[in-house]
Specification:
With 198 residues, this protein is an all-alpha fold. The chain is built from 11 helices and no strands. The protein has one domain.
């Protein structure tokens, strides 16, 4: 069971995917593949950050101050008007110097430009935090429970699609350069199906 991935799997459907496709000029299938890979990857990165108590405190405070979950009420509208600067700032905190490594890896896996993936990541980052904020509010999660939720999301993703999560995890590791092998790239979007429940 995955509270956040399942919520976003339901919300990031037809109209939201169409809007991402329209904003970036890629096919809807490719847009869906980026979402399928990026959401669990961002959740895993957040889970890593909250392994550190200071990181968990910082995330909990950021959710309280800057995110109320209202983005989820109209995701297509948010995507249509999205200013990617806030999302880029979130990515800097969550992914650090791995942003372009992650973008390159997902781009090769899906067969699109890394700049397009980077743009979609910046659109998705506030949406992921909005989902976390809504869960935090509805469940009354404290810092420890928030970290526990993210840990559970990571485990669920790894059990749903272990091979895909191995590849996505390698993009977060400090010694990776985002270069996915041609054999893996040929499997492309098939690897990413099943991560989000739709």
């Amino acid at each position: 069971m995955s509270a956040i991935m399942d919520l976003l799997g339901k919300e990031m459907t037809g109209e939201a995917i169409k809007e991402i496709s329209a904003q970036t000029g890629i096919e809807e299938e490719q847009a869906a593949a980026v979402v399928n890979g990026a959401v669990p990857l961002l959740l895993k990165a957040l889970a890593r950050n909250t392994d550190d108590p200071q990181g968990a405190e910082a995330l909990a405070e950021a959710l309280k101050q800057d995110h109320d979950g209202s983005i989820l009420d109209d995701i297509p509208g948010f995507v249509n008007q999205a200013n990617t600067a806030p999302g880029q700032a979130i990515l800097k905190h969550v992914l650090g110097d791995r942003i372009m490594t992650v973008a390159r890896g997902l781009a090769k896996l899906i067969g699109i430009e890394s700049e397009t993936v980077d743009r979609i990541l910046a659109i998705l980052a506030p949406i992921v935090l909005a989902a976390l904020a809504r869960q935090q509010q509805s469940e009354g999660l404290d810092v420890g429970a928030l970290a526990g939720l993210l840990g559970q999301e990571k485990k669920t993703a790894e059990s749903r699609a272990p091979e895909a999560m191995d590849i996505l995890s390698s993009l977060l590791d400090g010694d990776g350069d985002g270069d996915i092998s041609d054999d893996v790239a040929e499997m492309g979007t098939k690897l990413l199906t099943g991560l989000l429940s739709r």
